[in-house]
Amino acid sequence: xxxxxxxxxxxxxxxxxxxxxxxxxxxxxxxxxxxxxxxxxxxxxxxxxxxxxxxxxxxxxxxxxxxxxxxxxxxxxxxxxxxxxxxxxxxxxxxxxxxxxxxxxxxxxxxxxxxxxxxxxxxxxxxxxxxxxxxxxxxxxxxx
Length: 144
Prior knowledge:
With 144 residues, the chain is an alpha+beta fold. It has one domain: CBS-domain, CATH 3.10.580. The protein is 49% helix and 18% strand. It contains six helices and five strands; from the N terminus they run H-E-H-E-E-H-H-H-E-E-H. The protein has a three-stranded mixed sheet. A hairpin with a 2-residue loop joins strand 4 and strand 5.
C-alpha cells in the first residue's frame, strides 16, 4: 500500500496558516480541523514549515503567556520530512519512527497534495493486516 492509497481514502485537504498567524489562530485551526499539526505557507503558497500541538506546548512551558503573541514563523519546524504519493506505508512508517515525527506532508512534483499522520499510517497497516488475515482464513477454509 502507498501514501496515495491513504490520501484516496482520507482526502487531500490540508490545513495551513500564514507565517504571521498568532498562536491563538493556530490553536483555533488545530481545534477546528481536529488535527495535531498545521502547515505554514507563505502568500505564494510556498511550504515553509509545520507547527504541531507539541511545538505550542513546549514553547508555552518555556515562555508562558508570551507564547500567545508569537507567530507561526517563530514556532514552526522548518526541516520538513516529506513523502510522495508513491512512498509505501512501511517506508513512511520507518521515516516517522526514525525522524520522530508524527506528520508528513505529501509532495508530488514539488506540489503539496496532502498530509498524513501517524494515525493514518497505523490505520492503513491495521486494515492491510486484517485483509491478509481474512485471505488466509478463506484459503484455509477452502483447502479443508
